[in-house]
Amino acid sequence: MSGIVVSERGPTVGGRAVRQAGEWLPAVVVFVLVVGLWEGTIRAFHVQQFLLPKPSSIASAFWTQRHTLWPAGWYTFKEALGGFVIGSVAGVVAATVVGRFRVVGTALMPIFIAANAIPIIAFAPIFGVWFNPISPHSKMAVAGVLCFLPVMVNTLRGLQSASPRQIELMRSYAASDFDVWRRVRVPTALPFLFTALKVASVLAMIGAIVGEYFGGALTALGVLISSDAQVFQFTTAWAGILVASLLGIALYTAVVLVERVVVRWSPQARGS
Amino acid sequence: MNSTSVVRIDGVTKTFPQGNVTALQEIDLELAPAEFVSLIGPSGCGKSTLLRVIGDLIEPTAGSITVNGKSVRQARNDGDYGIVFQDAVLFDWRTVAKNIALPLEMLGWERQRRKARVTEMLELVELGGFADHHPWQLSGGMQQRVAIARALSFEPALLLMDEPFGALDEMTRERLNLELLSIWQKTGSTVVFVTHSISEAVFLSTRVVVMSPRPGRIAGMIDVDLPSPRSVETREAPRFFELVTEVRELLRKRGEHLLPEEEARIS
Amino acid sequence: MAHAAIAAELPRRRVRDVPLVRAAGRIGLVVAVLVLLVGLWELYHWIWTSAGWTWPFPVNDTSMPHVWTIVKAFGQPAQVNQPALITILLHKTAFTAKEAAAGFAMGALVGFALGVILVHSRLLQRGFLPYIVGSQTVPILAIAPMVVVWVNPKLPGSLQGWGAVAVIAAYLTFFPVAINTLRGLQSADPRALELMRTYAASRWAVLWTLRVPTSLPYVFSALRLAATASVVGAIIGELPSGIQDGLGSAILNFNQYYSLEPQELWATNVIAAALGIAFFVIVVLAERAIVRRAPENVA
Questions:
Q1: What kind of architecture, by CATH, is found in domain A54-262?
Q2: Per-residue pLDDT reduced to its tens digit, B224-248
Q3: Which of A35, B151, C6, C202 has its CA at a distance of 20 to 30 angstroms from the CA of residue C234?
Q4: Residue C297 falls within a domain, yes or no?
């Protein structure tokens, strides 16, 4: 007896390639159009390059200044990555601990969500005081705290959202609480965790750069960008911003790729 | 694979404190080995509650119940029954094979034994090529077959089914009815089957238990003396229609509390 | 589950359900948590100073002022011949709040509009969504001074300064609103959409009678995030722009002489935290009033 198998693959290999191209082609077109328009307007109207340099200038500064910009980017990226890892791990651990005590979790959830509303940025100088304004640790702390709350809140929500039927099924197998947690709650929480990690990956880089505003080594990207801006080297500053943005995207993409592998079965990873 | 089970339900009552609802009142029922018993009745008659009481998923307020001579708690701990819900309740993150293996993992079977049994069950429900698929890649009927395979994988003596085919279209339903019967013949389990459909109840069962609501109680029982094994022709036999009518009459008579829309729904 | 279905037939009214009691319970919980936090703070301070541990950071009255010191600081002037700190901070908070509120409004409108535009075209979605997401990877702090210099001359006099910061706040606000509005508008039941098609409803009609109401939970979920984002954006925008009237300048000033008067920076941070939470609570209450039921937990 056969049944209907729902498949997302197209009928032909060629058809599939076309569909995949159709996915990213519009974005590429938009990119080309915007960059072209930007470059064109500035050239044609001789707009002062004071604040907004030509894309070509930015690109060339990106390349020519790479000996300072790229290592600085890496330095800041390490701060962001460190904060991302520490904050996310702490968030998962905290969610697990709070999740064990159902009543506590549900009662405190509104408090956690409200705590998420605190502008952590305001605490960046405090972290500078604690961990020495120049050292990377203060920036890692900012990034870490920024990542902690979304990861914790979302993971906790995920742990709490197992379907009651699935739990009933496990009970019919005389499963212990630990079994239910391991086999049902954790897999259910994974998609939620990855949603939070995607948010956190972007926040981590931002947090590191904001942290650097309050003091940082000269080899840090945030410091470099603001000092370039202060001496009116806007092209270099924009190139630095480009580096920061690319690194943020890179971390985000890395999380998305890991998500595709680990959480292969979730609706997000399937691309629905 | 023949196993025996006796379920003895004695004066079981269940009230829910919220709203003071008496879901079950003084239920007395005995199930013999290898029986196929359907529980049928309008909403609120307690059939799903009774099923869960048998499965030790809900505790009765009064009365006693034993499965295979043990307490239901013991029976649950010993893995004496399998349960199938109206939704397949499969785990999205496991393949079909791993879903079927779930209770076996819980019971501590080693990998080789699990693998062998899973293959066996896939053959039984005729899903041989789908071991590595994921639940979302299957149709509703196929998912339900996986759920049945899972429930039977550890050869429970008792099978509890809560409107398992309720979400499927009529043709798939009739096909799965036949499959279920053939599986039942092979395994010899006792089946408690909750349903809304009179024709399904009569077609599948050796005995139909009619329940009525508010408070939930047994209104009557009808032995189904249709010949076995049942087939497509059974549905067209005169005796089939007589039995269906008997059940319907019983539902109508004892269901004085039925609302018109409920009555229309029982067809 | 079966018993829930049965129990749901009859309504139940318990003391717990009365709104006033629930509110009191919530407030009680918040107070309890605050007391607990203060207790933990002082405990940490005491243990670390007694033991002399320097990890993760050295603990003393400068790095971790006593809670009472911070509370007292509110009542005292920060500099000679000035009103009490709390008065100054409240003025600055009002200023920053103005920027954040303006930024919130602008960002929410832009985000909503983007969502509405994008839901009607998959092509536009594929073209622009990556950049909308990518926009948030650009470190706004680095761009802020340039935005301020560029926007200020274009604004009427009364809006200058804080108007540019509002733009920066809007930059952080539009993103969650745009993404969630899109998701919300897309979440309409396909069968309801089919129904609208049988009425030969125009796209506009479908939008307003079906998609928008369906999207409300998502939009409000985003507005809660946006409330925080707007406050963060306002503070970040103030930092490099030299504006003296807002919380950003207070943070920078008190950071400079932190070693002398650490409690003042802490007091500022407490107020900033309160501002963020206040915005959040306002959105939650607004949602309750508009939708007339509890806010949904849409991830």
A1: Orthogonal Bundle (1.10)
A2: 999 888 988 999 999 999 999 999 9
A3: A35
A4: no
Domain shared by C283 and C175, yes or no = yes
Given C32, C64, C96, which residue is the final one in a domain? C64
What is the per-residue DSSP string for B97-110? Answer: HHHHHHHHHHTT--
| Residue C70 belongs to a domain | no
Same domain, yes or no: C23 and C124: no
**Domains in chain C: how many in total?**
2
pLDDT of residue C166: 92
Q: What single-letter amino acid sits at B23?
A: A
Chains touching chain A at 3 or more Cβ pairs under 8 angstroms?
A: B, C
ipTM for the assembly: 0.78
Domain boundaries, chain A: 1-47, 54-262
Q: Are residues C57 and C93 in the same domain?
A: no
C25/C90 same-domain check: no
User: Quick one: C51 and C166 in the same domain?
Assistant: no
Rounded CA-CA distance B201/B244 in Å is: 9
Identify whether residues C25 and C94 lie together within a single domain. no
Chains in contact with B, where contact means 3 or more Cβ–Cβ distances below 8 Å, are A, C
Judged by CB atoms closer than 8 Å, whether chains meet at B136 and A183 is answered as: no
Q: What is the pLDDT of residues B58-88, one digit of tens each?
A: 889 999 999 888 898 888 888 888 889 888 8
Query: Both tokens of residue B73?
Result: 């708690």
Chain C residues at the B interface, defined by Cβ less than 8 Å, are 1-3, 5-7, 9-12
| Average pLDDT score over chain B | 87
Residue of C nearest to B43 (CA): C6
CA distance to A215, C100, C220, C293, C294, per residue, from C289 (Å): 44, 22, 12, 8, 9
Q: Closest to B23 (Cβ–Cβ): which among C3, C10, C11?
A: C3
> Are B71 and B63 spatial neighbours (Cβ–Cβ below 8 Å)?
no
**Is C77 inside any structural domain?**
no
Handedness of CA B105, B107, B110, B114 (dihedral sign): negative
CATH number of the domain bearing residue C253: 1.10.3720.10
* pLDDT (mean) for A193-212: 89
Q: Which residues of chain A does C236 touch, with a Cβ-Cβ cutoff of 8 Å? A: 121, 210
Residue C12 with chain B: CB contacts under 8 Å: 18-19
Residue C74: inside a domain: no
Residue C140 belongs to what domain range?
A: 85-291
8 Å CB contact of C127 and A29: yes
**Cβ contact, residue pair A6, B57, below 8 Å:** no
For residues C285 and B265, what is the distance between their CA atoms, to the nearest angstrom? Answer: 43
For residue B260, what pLDDT is reported? 57
Are C51 and C89 in the same domain? no
Residues of chain C with pLDDT under 50: 1-11, 294, 297-299
Task: Note the pLDDT tens digit of each residue in A20-70.
Answer: 777 788 888 888 888 888 888 777 776 666 667 888 888 888 888 888 888
Instruction: Name residues whose C-beta falls within 8 Å of residue C66's C-beta, 6 or more positions apart in sequence.
Output: C42, C45
| Backbone phi and psi for residue C86, each to the nearest 5 degrees, phi listed first | -65, -35
